[in-house]
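ok here's the first one, seq then struct tokens
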Amino acid sequence: MSRDSLLSTALLASAAMAGAVALSACSKPAADTPTAATAPASTAGSTHAFNDAINAADFAEHVKVLASDEFEGRAPGSTGEEKTVQYLEAQFKRMGLKPGNGDSYFQTVPMVETTADESTVLKLDVKGQPRELKFGTDMVVGTRTGQSNVKVDGSDLVFVGYGVNAPEQNWNDYAGLDVKGKTVVMFVNDPGFHAQDPKLFEGKRMTYYGRWTYKFEEAARQGAAAALIIHDTEGASYGWDVVKNSWSGAQFDLPAKDDPEPRLPVQGWITGEAARSLLAATGHNLDDLYKAANKPGFKPIALPARLSVDLKSQTREKSSRNVVAVLPGAKRPDEAIVYMAHWDHLGNHGHDADEHGGASAGEPHADTIYNGAIDNATGVAGILEIAEAFSKQTPPPDRSLVFLAVTLEESGLLGSKYYVSHPSVPLNKTVAVINLDAMPVIGQARDMTVVGFGSSELEDLLKTVAEGQQRVLHAEATPEDGFYFRSDHFNFAKAGVPALYAKGGDELTEGGVEAGRRAQSDYRDNRYHKPGDQFDPSWKMEGVVQDLDALYGVGRTLAGSEQWPNWYEGNAFRSAHDKLMQAAK
């Protein structure tokens, strides 16, 4: 990773950009898309001139800056955050957009920063025999309580299958069980995935019950003292290194007063290998338990083991910021379409370089910055490009456009959760939300992937735009990964607001499906949540420009009409939307 400086502090306070990107691909504007006249940045020192239309050079420049080493991985509460939010404010001001939170572009999100002591050891008593699980190697744990010292002493272990309580599925892994004060151990994902049974839940496609966030929430509701999820790469859709990298270092949460749901004293993951060994010591076989937990009527299993842990953490009350800008509508400014992306990433792990990639700690060029270029400087660059296009659109949109860059996505979608509870535009006046997260930069595709395909009428609008690009829509190739529940639109969806999460598809014009999936797998395996997620000037960005044009087209249609799209009939979020609309009358 280059250590060259990309920005000076002075440029951060302005709309200036450092370094021109020599890329020629650009979008072809639709009939009412802005023309391609350039608009130089407003302050001296910039060598980049921004184009009114969505184009690859501007997109690349945004990503290059946001993912630079100077932004230090954009961790919430860090100097990297300050640089990020000031940069975003400067860009929105340059475009002429208005503050989206009263007279400010910033919405303060209160948070608690908790950093677990990585010397923590889980101590187990298995049939009278002591065992230990070490942090990072065998397990990772943390606390959501905000307390600097949490102790669990001699807590009985109970295996609860998938830790799911789903009345509509006639499924309850906690049936007849009192887990107060106990430690629950469970599988990731949900029963249909490992059984490969389409009759269980949604089969291969992950439901919200399969997400780790749900499992900890339910364990807390049940009164458990601790919860451990057994990791497996296929079920989680990522390897142990991703879990370790994501759960070590500073962790963030909303204060209890802003999020009063029950919280676990201790929660975390154990490796599949550690789980197999532990269960064998209790007289159980991990493979057999997978089979048992996949069957309706599964009964929880008390394990002859007890867990103790003395979890010490550094805790601080801090705050982070969402960045909100608005382009007021010309005719119906009280109605809005929201474009959103999360700006945060994992920061700088310089304190433990040997654990988190790059060279060993102490070596002169150890790479410890998690730059988050794809995840999610690309999404932020995308909403900036779309904002630029709308700000120059003629005629101007009838409805308002809100551009929302949220924090704390990597900590459990907390920034968007806070915004949904404190929206700039009432949710019953929010027509739709369009989310950009980890945009592909692997070339043009003949298709677009709609994550959560078959959810809302927004897909009908996207289909029309995509057909104009001679592209088709389809579901994500790996619905078992649960991406629909892993990005910020999900908080809007739970509140009833129709949400669209779409990006370039798998079938590349050069190399077809095989090339597309190979490139995406390469990113997932080698760069996702790793220091290697860096800006690369060799990216093929003509495809992401096409994607941004399509997503802009959906918003342009909605902003110039009186349509109120709904979720499709039978979707779980439709009733919440109907209640929102009823409240608007």
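and now the second one, same deal
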Amino acid sequence: MDTDLTTYSLLNSITTPEDLRKLRVEQLPEVCKELRQDIIEEVARNPGHFAASLGTVELTVALHYVYNTPYDRIVWDVGHQAYGHKILTGRRDAFSTNRRFKGIKPFPSPEESEYDTFACGHASNSISAALGMCVAARQKGETDRRVVAVIGDGSMSGGLAFEGLNNASSTPNDLLIILNDNDMAIDRSVGGMKQYLFNLTTSNRYNQLRFKMSRILFKMGILNEERRKALIRFANSLKSMAAQQQNIFEGMNIRYFGPIDGHDVKNLARVLHDIKDLKGPKILHLHTTKGKGFEPAEKDPGVWHAPGKFNPDTGERILADTSHLPPLYQDVFGETLVELARQNPRIVGVTPAMPTGCSMNKLMETMPDRAFDVGIAEGHAATFSGGMAKEGLQPFCNIYSSFMQRAYDNVIHDIALLRLPVVLCLDRAGLVGEDGPTHHGVFDLAYFRPIPNLTIASPLDEHELRRLMYTAQLPDKGPFVIRYPRGRGVLLDWRCPLEEIPVGKGRRLKDGTDIAVVTLGPIGNIAARAIARAEKEQGLSIAHYDLRFLKPLDEEMLHEIGQRFQRIVTVEDGVISGGMGSAVLEFMADHGYKPDVRRIGVPDQFIEHGTVAELYHLCGMDEEGICHQLSMNNRQ
């Protein structure tokens, strides 16, 4: 496709939203055109999230035009909608470093800009956070501070959003919730809420008349806050009867406006201006198109959620030849799940809004009645899986490691407590790269390790992943956690016979006499290269043990290590506080062994964004860092 040449005459004049607010409202469509083209050209060269931010260009411009940011608070939900926000708030010159190591952050963060009001890497938290800001402003007497929550891209399916709505309906506040309804999360939105939002209609003329009448009645002293709520409930009842449809938001005493065209920036600015001083909680419902203004992204917004590099003029994605490379771990999972499901009729698949990202789409395409996308609802995904398992099915529930944090109680209460046979597959475990600290899956080993009844495993390679999946669905295995990283494996010939791996049994990959290296998961392949290098450069004899299971531990193997070695190095792609290395230390202490144990992993801090290789180097987890630690042991 051919994109229009853009001079950026208006965008070049905008450094902050204050500059934007100096323009006439008639100039806003041109600002949107230039901003959209700037995002297209920037993301074409420096890959990142794409379609979601194109869909919010007009909303972003209108918000910063009408509201006095940063004093007024805009709380974004799922920050991949906010590239336009970054460009308009002083980061246009730095936007070429977006997601790069030491560059600007992948999602809005208060640590980066005063315009970024809250962390927003995960979905559905905007309403709760914004409500908290509203209450804080009231407590501090900041009656002129307005707060806006922008939620969308499927985030309304998250339970936290409804918890926030429920509280907003009963807590004094003037919060504005903007529902960016684009019929999408990353894949197409699912569930009843999607269909409800699509069908919801309300008269704008009715809302405008009601707003004007309420202001008149307040000034006359006829209407107070308590009477206003009662009147809203009565009016909502009449409107529901007339429309033969109940409005869920107004049923909660939250004023509803819309739906309106989210790409008509002048009308959107007018509506925002008209309702921004309205008292009480309110919701503005927008219809937008994900990928708006870039035809390929409009046609296939799922693919263009994060498309990689592409030609901004033709829309052609620049794809590297990967035919000679090992497969992605997620694709091995997807192919193996289909293979297992053909053999085991009890197997079903569950994912919270990530069927393409985790390759659950392979089962959906092959056996659509046995795969379930539950929307952005990780806690529900876990409990839903537990319910199916209780009645005899064998769920494979695939949730990104960092998103699994949101389902922690559900795993404990609804799966582990009853020892239900749910296989929890944690994709994107470990350091994930450019998405940064909100997405690094580094905590799961530490937070799952104390939970009774869980089996926790991580495969060294693709063969091990397939065999662990096969093992997990065998009878009487109980809840089974399998974690694996983002990206490619190490084996071109990745298909192998599906064989059982004895639960709780590790293996010695290489013998040695000076140092024992204990690894868990695919990072063991990096450790193997470091061992070979250290032996060659330092003349060491190093044994390498693949633990395989964090829980239960292979005690026989750990006794062997404790008896034979005075120097032990543990390597894991997770936090060292409470992780695999801690488990080894605890075992040695509990059994009277006193070796020198050095742990390599993610330190006790949030790790920034960058390529996985850059972050491994930062944390001393790459070949060089592991080799250095082995050499340090040799010099002692």
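notes on #2: Residues 225-243 form the longest helix (19 residues). The longest strand covers residues 567-575.
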